């Protein structure tokens, strides 16, 4: 079992993982863990069971695919992977409600679309419709519901200076359905496989979107805990791993790897009690550390995130929160909402939207 590695399931280690927000922190953490180096040729991920060094963590390719770099690097602009992660978070919130519904009635028909799911489970119309509602009390009621939902999905940007240069970290946290520890490598760290293909109320399809965030990050960490009502026979606990881009010595073919705790690719897990102690009841958290915004640095990254996300997620299924370098949240509703906002319409000043983000490539799925 992966948990058998001494000392790697303690609450103390969990607190250290959560505290990692910079590349320096991450390198310090990795230095304390028993990890077989990616340059150690005694381990071969394609023959993991035969070459595994017991009691150690090993770098395994994301998606089990040594040639994963091409697909992970597909995102054309750094904000797109962040939007992918946010959409995954919305889907995780919806999926939790769908599971609760099925637990009550296993024959309940699925919602026909993501919007229908949001209507059924959260009582919300498309967000851009809210400002158009004439009845003020009803408008305020829906706004209140939406504001509360937004607290369940958070994107947090922080900046530190390392050797004088700004270094960005993005955390994406959702209080959704989560994944059990033994499924993390087959979902959050997989490539080209999805759990959404048979669900008309989901958007995701390719099993690809979320992983693109690794391409803009020097390091990432992930924590995920399945909601109790969706656990079934699986063990409760908090799966965790670290992801990095590997440049093997003497080779040109880099790839993305995660820390595995067992030869079958499973990640390590903290006990449920440790997850409770840090306030993670269920859901998923990703930290993307040392983010590269394609050479853009300084305060423009912080300033542009609000308009960029509102642009890319124009009329999002669910609202979310943005913490752009500070402790207070901007609730994010998308530019469609902002365009139909009565306050903006009636204002004599600054009626134009602050879209400072470069044009986006539009694709249809
Ligand atoms: N926040 C999350 N909470 C729970 N599970 C998640 C979360 N994000 C991703 N997953 C799981 O990981 C899988 C892969 O996510 P990914 O975004 O790469 O693909 P997808 O959403 O299925 O499809 P697409 O590539 O179209 O986004 C999902 O199918 C889902 O099972
Ligand atoms: Mg996705």
Describe this structure in words.
- The protein has helices spanning 11-18, 23-32, 48-51, 69-72, 79-104, 114-122, 136-150, 212-215, 272-277, 299-312, 335-339, 342-346; strands at 35-36, 57-61, 153-162, 165-174, 219-225, 238-246, 255-260, 268-270, 283-291, 320-324, 330-332.
- It has 365 residues and is α+β, with helices and mostly antiparallel strands.
- The protein has one domain.
- Strands 1, 2, 3, 4, 5, 6, 7, 8, 9, 10 and 11 form an 11-stranded mixed beta sheet that branches.
- β3 and β4 (165-174) form a beta hairpin.
- The longest helix is centred in the N-terminal third of the chain and has 26 residues, at 79-104.
- The radius of gyration is 21 Å and the shape is globular.
- The helix-strand sequence is HHEHEHHHHEEHEEEEHEHEEHH
Q: What is the number of beta strands? A: 11
Termini gap:
40 Å
Fraction in helix: 25-40%
Strand proportion, as a percent range, falls in 15-25%
What do the pLDDT scores average to?
91
Instruction: Specify the biggest β-sheet.
Output: 11 strands, mixed
Give the overall silhouette: globular
Point out poorly predicted stretches.
Answer: none
Radius of gyration: 21 Å
Topology:
Layout: H1 11-18, H2 23-32, E1 35-36, H3 48-51, E2 57-61, H4 69-72, H5 79-104, H6 114-122, H7 136-150, E3 153-162, E4 165-174, H8 212-215, E5 219-225, E6 238-246, E7 255-260, E8 268-270, H9 272-277, E9 283-291, H10 299-312, E10 320-324, E11 330-332, H11 335-339, H12 342-346
Parallel strand pairs: 1-2, 3-10
Antiparallel strand pairs: 2-7, 3-4, 4-9, 5-6, 5-9, 6-7, 6-8, 10-11
Bound molecules: adenosine-5'-triphosphate and magnesium ion.
Adenosine-5'-triphosphate binds next to helix 5.
């Amino acid at each position: 079992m992966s948990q058998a590695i001494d000392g790697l399931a303690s609450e103390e280690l969990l607190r250290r993982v959560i505290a990692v927000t910079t590349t320096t922190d991450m390198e310090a953490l990795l230095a304390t863990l028993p990890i077989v180096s990616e340059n150690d040729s005694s381990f071969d991920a394609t023959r993991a069971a035969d070459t595994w060094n017991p009691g150690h963590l090993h770098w395994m390719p994301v998606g089990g695919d040594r040639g994963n770099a091409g697909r992970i690097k597909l995102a054309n602009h750094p904000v797109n992977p962040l939007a992918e992660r946010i959409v995954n978070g919305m889907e995780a919130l919806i999926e939790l409600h769908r599971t609760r519904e099925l637990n009550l009635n296993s024959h309940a028909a699925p919602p026909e679309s993501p919007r229908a799911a949001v209507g059924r489970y959260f009582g919300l119309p498309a967000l851009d419709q809210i400002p158009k509602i004439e009845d003020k009390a009803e408008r305020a009621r829906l706004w209140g519901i939406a504001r509360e939902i937004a607290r369940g999905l958070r994107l947090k940007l922080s900046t530190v200076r390392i050797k004088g240069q700004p270094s960005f970290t993005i955390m994406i946290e959702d209080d959704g359905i989560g994944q059990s520890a033994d499924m993390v490598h087959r979902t959050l760290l997989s490539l080209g496989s999805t759990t959404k293909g048979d669900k008309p109320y989901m958007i995701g399809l390719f099993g690809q979107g979320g992983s693109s965030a690794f391409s803009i990050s020097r390091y990432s960490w992930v924590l995920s805990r399945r909601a109790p009502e969706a656990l079934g026979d699986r063990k409760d606990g908090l799966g965790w791993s670290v992801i990095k881009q590997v440049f093997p010595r003497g080779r040109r073919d880099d790839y993305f790897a995660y820390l595995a705790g067992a030869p079958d690719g499973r990640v390590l897990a903290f006990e449920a009690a440790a997850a409770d102690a840090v306030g993670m009841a269920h859901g998923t958290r990703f930290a993307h550390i040392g983010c590269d915004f394609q050479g853009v640095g300084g305060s423009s990254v912080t300033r542009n995130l609000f308009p960029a996300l509102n642009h890319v997620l124009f009329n999002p299924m669910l609202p979310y929160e943005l913490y752009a370098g500070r402790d207070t949240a901007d609730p994010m509703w998308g530019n469609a909402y902002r365009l139909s906002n009565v306050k903006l319409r009636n204002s004599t000043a600054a009626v134009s939207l602050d879209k400072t983000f470069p044009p986006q490539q539009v694709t249809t799925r």
